[in-house]
Every structure is written in structure tokens, then in C-alpha cells.
Amino acid sequence: MADVFLSLKFNLYPMQKVFYLLIVLLILSCGSTQLKQTNPESIPQGPEGVKGRVVKAETPINVETTKHSESQVSTVSSKTKPSTVAFSNSDAVGELMNFLASDELQGRDSGSPGIEKAAVFIERIFKSNSLKPYFISYRDTLSNFEKPAYNMVGVLEGTDAQLKNEFIVVGAHYDHIGTRSPINGDTIANGANDNAAGTTTVLELARYFGNAKTNKRSLVFALFTAEEKGLLGSKHLAKKLKDRNFNLYTMLNFEMVGVPLVDKDYLVYASGYERSNLAEICNGYAKEKLVGFLPTAKEFNLFARSDNYPFHTNFAVPSQTFSTFDFTNFDHYHKVGDEASLMDFGHMATLVNKFIPVIEGIANASQKEIKYN
């Protein structure tokens, strides 16, 4: 039909030519097919467009906080800071967790389209909270994995002219195991506790420090891929940083922190507890027994089974993992039942808030306090 209209165009008056040409274009457009592309704008932004503010202890934030009066908000400086931090809460944690552990991400298998969506999400949070890429971009491409896969690495430079040359790595792995054989029709191993929970913790800490800027030492926030393939992401990054003479002070890793410990007098345990004075230092800055010893963690050698370990082997500096998985409080490890609905968002927010003064204290101490025994 389009050919018929085009054959008439030279015998028509100018206005008629325009009229018929528009009809031709309309017919052609109706028969066309649009290609669908993944739109980064469809990826959620995170709590309040990701960027947060530091709030007075008596005014705990929620997702609505930054929409309200500026009088509710207090920017924290190194000279004036609240004695207790009330920054994260269950709403902020839940918004992160419900996306990272959603079916849309299909279990975040390394190199998959699902984990790519998580990577875009993380990039936005880093950028919106003033973290700079440590390398050329936030993406650190693995050299030891067959598919394109990326660690996500952002840095917040320290405020002290000398201490900023020393680095603290705050990390967690953001990958999981993808899909599994169906159980009651569910095939997606969402990995909420393992390890969207650790990822969320790191993102909330990045949100705090990116806005507070109270760290004298530089902080690297690293989210690892391919942990489930044998710690490949952290092995790659630790070696890469070592080859660049990276001045690592300590590596603090978060793994499976989505549900509270059972009948313990501490909030988290540290893998390799007996190897260093990390727990003592943490508890001093927390002004409470925040970090304790879990005998089962030593029995199963959890120290060597998470992303702290490659930093320990490459740098020989205190590198340990914090966790609240105690082998009794979670029955869905590497199963399709590891869902966000089972996580305790209030507990996770408490953990974030209690670790803020700990990391701040470690980052600002005049001397390196954490040492291996």
C-alpha cells in the first residue's frame, strides 16, 4: 500500500503531498517492531533516591526523612557528632533487601543478567553518596572467571593528610547461586541472608560515611562477585591491590547478618576471633559487647571460608568476617527458601548503627590498633 501512495506524490499539490506523506509514514510505523532493551532507569534507586543524610540520634531516619524540613537534619562533623548514631532503620534496610533478594534478580548468579541489575543498583548508590570509583569505573572485572563478572569497588578518601594513605576495606559478596531444582514451584535461590544482608550492611555504611565524611583513613567499600564459586572475586581483588602496593590496614567483611544470634550476649561474632584483638577494639568503640566468640565458627574454620581470607593471605593484616549465622537460627542456606521475608530488618539496622562508631573509631585512631596475636 505504501508503494501506491508514493507513486502519486509527484502529481499532487504541495499540501496534498505532505498529507499523503504523513499517511505513508503512519502506515510504515504501524508495521514496525520495537526492540526491547534493559533500561537502567527501571532499576530502583534505593532509600530516598539512595542518597541519605546523617541524622541526630533522637531523630531516627526513615525513607521519608529527607523529604521533610531541613531542621530535622544534622550534618555530622568530626568535631560535633552524636554520642549514639540513629541512622539506618528497618525501612531503609527493607528497601535495599527487597530489591537485592527479589525474584527479578534470579538469584544473582555470577555473570548473569540478574546480578547485572544488582551491579547497576550498587553503582547508583556509590555515586549518589559521593564514593569515587577506585579503578577507572566502579566495576572491577574478574580475571579468574569465564564469564564477564565484576566486583563493585568505591572509595571514600580520608580527611587526614597522612592517615588517608592507609586503607580500610569494608566488604561483602553480592552474588548468590542462581536457580535450583523447584521446591513447591520455587526455583530461585534469592540469597537474602546469603548475602544480600551483608551487601545491604555495606551499602548502608557507605551511605553514612559518604555523607558524614568523618573518616581520617580512606575507606574502600568492596562488593564481591563469584564468592560462591570459590572466593574468586575477593581473590582477584586482593591480589590486584597487593600488586599495586595498596596500603591495607584492615579488612572488615560482613556475611549472613540477616537474622539475630540465638541466646548470645553479643550482637555478632568475628571469624578468627582468637587471631587478633579486633573484637576488643570493636567493643571499646561500641561501648558494649558488640562482637563475641562463636565456638562453632572456629570448629568449621569459617575464617577461611569467606572474603576476608584472600586479604589475610595476600596482606597478612587483620582481615575478619562478622556474622550472625550460628548454625541454629537459619535453615535455608543455599536453598530457595532464603527469602527477604525471613530477614529481621530491625536487627540489621541496629547492626549498621552500632558499627558506625566502630568503623569511625578504627578509621580515626592515631595509630593502627588492630593487630594479629
Structure description:
There is one protein chain. About 35% of the residues lie in helices and about 15% in strands. It is an alpha/beta fold and about 375 residues long. It has a single domain, classed as Zn peptidases (Aminopeptidase, 3-Layer(aba) Sandwich), CATH 3.40.630.10. Strand 9 (about 270), helix 7 (about 280-285) and strand 10 form a beta-alpha-beta unit. It is globular, with a radius of gyration of 25 Å.
Short description:
The protein has 373 residues and is of the alpha/beta class.
**CATH superfamily caption:** Zn peptidases
Structural class: alpha/beta
Number of strands: 11
- Main sheet overview: 9 strands, mixed
Gyration radius, in Å: 25 Å
Write the layout of secondary structure elements.
Layout: H1 2-8, H2 14-30, H3 90-100, H4 113-128, E1 132-133, E2 139-141, E3 150-156, E4 167-173, E5 179-183, E6 186-188, H5 192-212, E7 218-224, H6 232-243, E8 248-254, E9 268-270, H7 278-286, E10 291-292, H8 295-299, H9 308-315, E11 319-323, H10 345-364
Parallel strand pairs: 4-7, 4-8, 8-11, 9-10
Antiparallel strand pairs: 1-3, 2-3, 3-7, 5-6, 9-11
Helix pairs in contact: 3-5, 3-10, 5-10, 6-9, 7-10
Features:
373 residues, two-stranded antiparallel sheet, alpha/beta, single chain, 11 strands, Aminopeptidase, nine-stranded mixed sheet, 14% strand
